[in-house]
Amino acid sequence: GAVVSQHPSWVICKSGTSVKIECRSLDFQATTMFWYRQFPKQSLMLMATSNEGSKATYEQGVEKDKFLINHASLTLSTLTVTSAHPEDSSFYICSARELGAETQYFGPGTRLLVL
Amino acid sequence: AQSVTQLDSQVPVFEEAPVELRCNYSSSVSVYLFWYVQYPNQGLQLLLKYLSGSTLVKGINGFEAEFNKSQTSFHLRKPSVHISDTAEYFCAAQTGANNLFFGTGTRLTVIP
Predict the structure, then answer these.
(1) How many helices (H) and strands (E) in chain B?
(2) Of these four, A35, A65, A98, B98, which has the most CB atoms within 10 Å of its CB?
(3) Chain A residues bordering chain B (beta-carbon distance below 8 Å)
(4) Which pLDDT value is given to residue A68?
């Protein structure tokens, strides 16, 4: 149980285009989903927290207009990187948590390369 | 404020030897503690967690960790490592239903 999937697993795009990443909880209802960014050989940096049906809460320094998060259902959250630039290239990981639970379950990550 | 410290950025160890990966945390309130493992180009997999109760927690793949409140530590141990244990290990802390705070990670390399 507690499986989280992400799609796509990797994406290459041109500078200026937008990229959407999906995060799904496959066997549980995720009332809260988290989006992280990880640079090479570094730890995970929390970007934002989203509760189903509510606006996402962004961490300090994360541009909400650039990283659009939608959590419209209990099993799906999406992260859209708008007008991507090479500095947005990174490994993006989502996690999901059930209502009242303490544990986050992580997706396999999406590697984004912006040329 | 919460913080998690993993003092060892890299730990090389020979196959079948024991290993300990250190984790210390700071928090003014009770915390939940987690260890996650990350294999190359993959997400994080939960190894084990401490929420309450017994301070010795057993996880998957033969790993265990001990919560020590007086030393604010949650070190991860395995009595005999395998090549397949080579990965990045992250310690994390959480207060209640709040967010996870991650340490900077420890790269475990098992040498044949």
Answers:
(1) 0, 12
(2) A35
(3) 4, 6, 34, 42-44, 46, 49, 91, 93, 95, 100, 102-109, 111
(4) 95
